[in-house]
Amino acid sequence: SPGLFALYIDPLLHKISRAISIDDSASLHAFADDLAIHCKNLPALTRALKVMIAEAVPYGLVINMKKSELHAWGAAPQASITFLHDQKRHHLSSLDKEGKPYSYYKYLGVFFFTDYSANIICAHFLSIIDSYFSSLPDMLLSPKEAVRLVNSQLIPKLAYRMTVHCLPNDTVNFLQKRIWFHLSKVSKLPRITPAKARYGPTKDGSLGLFELTTRIATLTLTQLQRALHGESPSMVAHLLRQALDLPIPTTASTYSIARCYVHAAEALDCQVYGLSKQPRIDRFVRVRRDPAPALPTDHLTHRSVEAGVQAFSYSVSPHEPRYGDLVLHGCHLAADLLRDHPDAWRAYTDGSGLHIHNNGAAVVLVDPSDPGARVFSHRIREDSSYPAELHAILLALRRAPRHQKLIILSDCSAALQKLDSIIKGVCAYYSHTHSSILRQIRKAYLLREAPTHYAHIRSHVGFAGNEWADIFAKHAAFCPFPPPPQMHKFDLHKGAILIQGKPHYHLYKHKIPRHAHPDLHPRSFDLWKYSSFFSRLSFSWPNGLVNIPGY
């Protein structure tokens, strides 16, 4: 095969065949980079493995021996090998301590790291990527087809091998760029960020590649978890720990595994399939409650609290991200908006929280003609960051001057998709858990007199506005709640019934199950004001009609 193995496959085969020649029944099968050795006696197999390791060292190669391939055939169903690494003697075996074949991990990996190997291996991966794309049919694929081809076949193949090689981040990013370059040639891709690993309508930002780093992180975490449970050789865990520079605990308690996941996700700077710093993990990771993060006090000129919403004024504002930096991180739309509307107000929104049960929402408003920044934040009763992001967008729409152009920059593509559907008038409110907040966003948007633009911006890559919003949102999660909206108990003369707080379930408790409809949320204050399926005489439900005649 071209690339790596062409360098040394021939001399290696000769040496291995000499090593196994002491066993008459032994056979050697080699095709491209795949090698199978069958022999009945253990010493012959051990000699072959030693040759492979000796040959691999200068190249920094990894010999991945499948468990099935490690079992010698016939009377000796065992293979083991001992070698030195970092002045330590390591013993790998296909049998566990009790002499039974390992059932729970698939690969016994022998790892070597050298600077020399990184360059060779990078060239090897480049040749894999190039040959994969050259093997595709010579036609223009649709964006979804192209991404599906790469996501399902190329990325998993590369990611597994890269995990084994523990490639440095910059190499991985370089390979990612090569894939992106090839993709742009075989498909008319919209300008989208490679970070968003999701399908969907091919509007900006909703179709994207699985990032290699995310895949690699997931695989690495799996290895770490196995190591913590004692299910993979301790050497593997040791080398991963070195390569990632993680403070990984050595005990296999739930606490330490969760902590290890959080550390690893931070170290690899990615959300590993939902393993972000979310309260669900925090619940069993954090023994003590975190204190609220400290807010920056330099240049603070004013601070007030009104109806639960905190307001801050600063004499300085966060640096606006440069066009090149935005493009580098895939935020093309944001880059174009900031360039084309230099006089528009900027609103950096974020919703997040360190608190166990609640999150905070914050918006940083920057007027380009004024050096200062205005920040608004409040706490919300939700333990996921998505509704917090929606609240932050609502805060931006309410607090920015209505007669000024506004650019909303959020790091949550799901919340921006909702905003997009509200503005285009295609939002399905009833099917949504957060219908109340979505209606408030629509109302606030319709009250604006100047154009409102919005775009996705990457989080935690050094964009100052986003980092400010993140700090204030985390701080807000520890502040008092805003009071609920004041409502009259019964307001019959307006042709609609408003009951404070939750609807009076006791009136028809036996008829209507509490979760019969998503809009019957304990905090849907606007339930009877806006809801078309609620009239005073008949309640139409997803599962049929309920009439309460005497009501």
What does this structure look like?
- The structure is a single chain.
- The protein is an alpha+beta fold and 551 residues long.
- It has five domains: 5-110, no CATH class; 115-210; 215-285, no CATH class; 300-476, 2-Layer Sandwich (Nucleotidyltransferase, domain 5); 484-551, no CATH class.
- Helices cover 38% and strands 15% of the residues.
- It contains 17 helices and 15 strands.
- The strands form five sheets. A seven-stranded mixed β-sheet has the order 7-8-11-10-9-12-13, sandwiched between helices. The protein has a two-stranded antiparallel ribbon with strand order 1-2. Strands 3-6 form a two-stranded antiparallel ribbon.
- A hairpin with a 2-residue loop joins strand 1 (27-31) and strand 2.
- Helix 1 (9-19) packs antiparallel against helix 2, helix 7 (212-228) packs across helix 8 (234-244) and helix 13 (385-399) packs across helix 14.
- It is elongated.
- The N and C termini lie far apart (80 Å).
- GO terms for molecular function: nucleic acid binding; RNA-DNA hybrid ribonuclease activity.
- Residues 341-478 form the RNase H type-1 domain.
